[in-house]
TrEMBL record:
Residues involved in NADP(+) binding: R52, K163
Protein name in UniProt: Glucose-6-phosphate 1-dehydrogenase
Source organism of the structure: Candidatus Vogelbacteria bacterium RIFOXYD1_FULL_46_19
One GO term describing the cellular component: cytosol
Keywords, alphabetical: Carbohydrate metabolism, Glucose metabolism, NADP, Oxidoreductase
Domain of life: Bacteria
All residue ranges annotated as the Glucose-6-phosphate dehydrogenase C-terminal domain in the record: 205-469
Enzyme class: oxidoreductase
Gene Ontology molecular function: glucose-6-phosphate dehydrogenase activity; NADP binding
Pathway field: Carbohydrate degradation; pentose phosphate pathway; D-ribulose 5-phosphate from D-glucose 6-phosphate (oxidative stage): step 1/3
Keyword Kinase carried by entry: no
Gene: zwf
Residues covered by the Glucose-6-phosphate dehydrogenase NAD-binding domain: 15-202
Statement: the UniProt record of this protein carries the keyword NADP: yes
Family designation: Belongs to the glucose-6-phosphate dehydrogenase family.
Length: 475
């Protein structure tokens, strides 16, 4: 958390499985290119693309150049040409042991050309369904083996794996057993890109660096918390995938629970990765539904027209909306109600956390919103920022109280600073060995322990149909 902005790194190779896929082209390559332009990559660096497509070197470079031109914020032709020279192509099928042997030989050849056993960062930008195929072959080909110098901090090997981490508690445990069988825990960096969003990173700072909040961040002063991830769009061509997953698996088990954990966790003993991750894990282990009656704690909905989307089953009951009322049993906010809400086809696109503070009722006031008390809002998207609602007397001879916001937005608060993308932050932290923004095995298992029983009972609930552009009216 307190490391310098730049630290010289030893020679490093980043290996991207699935480098021609959508995730790599839209997110990873622009993020790596950003780090390159900012001088945050090692001076001796190579990017190895491991892919199934049979492309020539020229076809591959054209594809990468087109992706960076489309998705990067202002890439010059000169810098692109220099960056492309750092990329090496390795073609092979993910289920072919010989392809992993060739990849291993390629990495040895690069080590020899650089004159050192390099750090190696593997990024699995592939569907998680391929993990059971890929992991054993990585083990068999010894790609996970670090250099002899790894104990001295160089020559390490690390692996970044994308969500979802399983479909339920059973599959998550199975996946974690595979990971544990091949890698040590300090080699594994599980990605939930929401943790890398600037506003979420700022929650800990707001809580601990400001006495205004540090002394009242407890159940004596906070009466409830809302965590919302609302989307205007529908499933946008993801019918086959989404119909198998649903909103709760897609964002509830990961993004929303990680946001909840940052708000509800106890003050970490130190601002180290180990302390912060342990504090998040304890909150998730103590999470429970707010009511004993399941129907009072969980609601679900599906937008009208969902069944007409391509790839969706004709009689699908997959939820595109959910709301969960929960509470935590540990930490400073134990017993405080939390609302987790997300859906597609809603009136607005917004991800936010609202923290409602207790009204001390020192003076009788009424306001238009009906809420009397301060509300702290963290807006994660679309316009990252923080706002605090205050009550103030309006100018004039009458005693009229109104709400006013103290707020700042990152775009105007730091107009000369570009906010790093989620993936730029995560890649940089993985290179630095900072695991703060990556969930632990315990966090993954704890989140599924909370979500799986809900999934098992979800079909017992009424499926509220709602119009696109409306907020579901659920009871």
């Amino acid at each position: 958390m307190t490391r310098p902005k730049t630290t010289p790194l030893p020679p490093t190779i980043v290996v991207v499985f699935g480098i021609t896929g959508d995730l790599a082209r839209r997110k990873l390559l622009p993020a790596i290119f950003d780090l390159y332009l900012k001088g945050l990559l090692p001076s001796q660096f190579r990017l190895v693309g491991f892919m199934r497509r049979d492309l020539s070197k020229l076809e591959f470079q054209t594809l990468i150049q087109d992706s960076l031109t489309k998705y990067h914020r202002g890439a010059s032709s000169t810098s692109l040409k220099k960056f492309l020279k750092l990329i090496v192509l390795e073609q092979g099928q993910f289920d072919d042991p010989a392809a992993y042997e060739r990849l291993g030989e390629q990495l040895k050849s690069l080590d020899n050309s650089l004159g050192v056993c390099t750090n190696k960062l593997f990024y699995l930008a592939v569907p998680p369904a391929l993990y059971p195929t890929i992991f054993p072959l990585i083990k068999k080909s010894h790609l996970a083996k670090a250099c002899e110098s790894a104990r001295a901090g160089t020559g390490w090997t690390r692996f970044l794996v994308e969500k979802p981490f399983g479909r339920d508690l059973g599959t998550a445990r199975s996946l974690e057993r595979q990971l544990k069988n091949i890698f040590t825990e300090d080699q594994i960096f599980r990605i939930d890109h929401y943790l890398a969003k600037e506003t979420l990173q700022n929650i800990i700072t707001f809580r601990l660096a400001n006495p205004l909040f540090a002394n009242i961040w407890n159940r004596g002063h906070i009466v409830r918390v809302e965590v919302r991830l609302l989307e205007q769009e529908g499933i946008v061509g993801r019918g086959s995938f989404y119909d198998e997953v649903g909103a709760l698996r897609d964002v509830g088990q990961n993004h929303l629970l990680q946001m909840l954990a940052l708000v509800a966790m106890e003050t970490p003993a130190t601002l180290t990765a180990a302390s912060i991750r342990a504090a998040r894990e304890r909150v998730l282990k103590g999470l429970k539904l707010a009511h004993s009656d399941f129907k009072e704690s969980v609601q679900r909905g599906q937008y009208e027209g969902y069944l007409n989307e391509s790839g969706v089953a004709p009689y699908s009951t997959t939820e595109t909306y959910f709301k969960i009322n929960a509470t935590v049993t540990t930490g400073p906010l134990r017993g405080v109600p939390f609302t987790l809400e997300s859906g597609k086809g809603l009136p607005v696109k917004k991800t936010e956390i609202k923290i409602y503070f207790k009204n001390l009722k020192l003076i009788p006031v009424e306001v238009e919103s009906g809420e009397v008390g301060n509300v702290l809002t963290f807006t994660i998207q679309p316009n990252e920022g923080v706002a605090l609602s205050l009550l103030a007397k309006e100018p004039g001879l009458d005693y009229l109280v109104t709400e006013k916001n103290l707020e700042f937005a990152y775009a105007t608060g730091w107009p000369d600073r570009l906010i790093p993308s989620d993936y730029e932050r995560l890649l940089f932290d993985a290179l630095m060995g900072d695991s703060t923004l990556f969930p632990t095995r315990g966090e993954i298992i704890a989140s599924w322990q909370f979500i799986t029983p809900i999934l098992n009972q979800l079909n017992k609930l009424p499926l509220t149909r709602y119009r696109r552009g409306d907020l579901p009216s659920v009871s």
